[in-house]
């Protein structure tokens, strides 16, 4: 029987796509992180593209402005995960011909509003007909002085933290979240952050990705997960589309630094949920999270 995408899943498909991919010296960080990083004339250039698809990321009944808002915010969240600064965006808009013009304009208004709130310039794009509404946002930005954070530099013993609360995003957060841009830049400046990423497919998927990128395993305390009111630890672990930050920091980080976080962001929790260990010492973690081609 011929192997299908459902058989191998998203992560293995990407591994097969990029295996043996040729890159020249201009590439600083290629596939495998939240964004790509390449050499610029003065600063490192940061690149990202992301797609939202009707029936996967939103429904036909989703308010149009929230569709556009989500499409833009997802990419901004990836820039935040690397403590980079987004600057310019291109929008690809694919839709069936029967969609009302008013709805199309409302989608774009959502894109524009989110972009403007983060100082991002929409500089063009593409339109095409298709069988369903699809938005792709391609974005460029910068990482001054090459001060960006990858997901692959964590070390054994690093403490694992998450921002905010997890779980229950289907109740509306996945459409209305605010990317943690200011928080990410504060963390990069004030704490010894060894690795960071945003939580999009659920902690159950994204924490193993961060650990695997570092060649490590992890221990996590499900009971310690900061939960959205009404959510169980299992939902916080596996629901996905939280768009919070997951970070690995030095265990030597002072309590004073963590207290400064509380004073700077008094309404946003920063919670220790576990630590990184040697891969052979990692306990079996529960399954969960979103998997393209399988979920």
Automatic annotation (TrEMBL):
Residues 32-142 form the PurM-like N-terminal domain. Mg(2+) 4 binds at residues 34, 78. One of its GO terms (biological process) is thiamine biosynthetic process. Residues 177-280 form the PurM-like C-terminal domain. InterPro entries: PurM-like_C_dom, PurM-like_C_sf, PurM-like_N, PurM-like_N_sf, ThiL-like. It comes from the Bacteria. NCBIfam families: thiL. This is Thiamine-monophosphate kinase. It comes from Prosthecobacter dejongeii.
């Amino acid at each position: 029987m011929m192997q299908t995408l459902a058989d191998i899943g998203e992560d293995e498909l990407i591994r097969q796509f990029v295996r043996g991919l040729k890159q020249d010296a201009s590439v600083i960080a290629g596939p495998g992180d939240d964004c790509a990083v390449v050499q610029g004339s003065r600063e490192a250039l940061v690149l990202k593209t992301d797609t939202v698809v009707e029936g996967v990321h939103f429904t036909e009944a989703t308010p149009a402005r929230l569709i556009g808002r989500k499409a833009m915010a997802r990419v901004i969240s990836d820039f935040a995960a690397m403590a980079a600064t987004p600057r310019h965006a291109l929008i690809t808009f694919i839709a069936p011909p029967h969609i009302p013009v008013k709805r199309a304009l409302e989608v774009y208004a959502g894109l524009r509003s989110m972009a403007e709130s983060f100082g991002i310039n929409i500089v063009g794009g593409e339109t095409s007909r298709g069988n369903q509404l699809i938005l792709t946002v391609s974005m460029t930005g910068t990482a001054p002085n090459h001060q960006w954070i990858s997901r692959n530099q964590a070390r054994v013993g690093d403490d694992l933290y998450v921002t905010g609360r997890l779980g229950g995003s289907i109740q509306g957060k996945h459409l209305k979240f605010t990317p943690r841009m200011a928080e990410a830049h504060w963390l990069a400046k004030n704490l010894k952050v060894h690795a960071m990423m945003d939580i999009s497919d659920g902690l159950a998927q994204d924490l193993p990705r961060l650990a695997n990128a570092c060649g490590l395993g992890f221990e996590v305390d499900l009971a310690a997960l900061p939960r959205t009111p009404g959510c169980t630890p299992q939902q916080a672990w596996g629901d996905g589309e939280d768009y919070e930050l997951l970070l690995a920091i030095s265990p030597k980080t002072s309590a004073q630094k963590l207290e400064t976080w509380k004073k700077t962001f008094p309404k946003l929790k920063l919670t220790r949920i576990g630590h990184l260990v040697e891969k052979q010492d990692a306990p079996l973690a529960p399954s969960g999270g979103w998997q393209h081609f399988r979920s």
